[in-house]
Amino acid sequence: MLGRFSRGMQLSIPARFRSQNQAVDVDNVVVAIEYFNKDISRVMRLLEEVPMNKVGTGEYGYNYIIPETVNPGNYIVRIKAKQPGSVSGILEATDHFEVVDSSDLPQVTPDKPLETVAPEATPQPEPVTQATLANPPNIMKAGAAPSGVEDVILDVYNSPVGGVHVNVFDKNSFIPNSPSNLKIASAITDPEGKFFVNLKPGDYVFSYKGINLREFREFRKVQ
User: Fold this and answer.
1) Does the pLDDT of residue 5 top 60, yes or no?
2) Which domains are present in the chain?
3) pLDDT at position 141, please?
4) Pairing relationship of beta strands 90-99 and 4-5 according to DSSP bridges
């Protein structure tokens, strides 16, 4: 959580990109702020995607003044970037902050910047190999890590599947195939099929979509 703020305060949004524990630069880093409008049951944008400022190797930031007109509640910060040298390698990270009525709340410094791991570039299999993976991938249950969920995705031959997009949605408000579903977290599997998402305890819908694979969903409870 980035902290609790009142209207008119400045929110500092940091992001750090790393690969193999080393800071790395990425392309087209943008940030957006979203919230769920209960009146119309839709996800709305408080801030459309805007470029973040580079402050160092793999380090980016953006300062946002919270408008006087916003309602109290939770707001989602969504950061996207493009993996260098990749046509479709999109990196994503999310966090949230809370707007409250009280104007005397101190601004809370986040424990650490939003962080995402850039997957290593790997050659894509030939289309004929991908065509053999017509069924949804098997999900090897690894359980809940201390601060989220860590898992491995395997194909029907029990081989790891890299490059699978994993999206996590709130189960209570999820509507199949609706563009208004609130995405809580996302990740991309590494060459070993592994992924990690940082989640609070609750009920979620996990969506898995790989290259030339049909989407597979499951409900998961995080303790």
Assistant:
1) yes
2) 4-117 (2.60.40.10), 127-222 (2.60.40.10)
3) 37
4) parallel
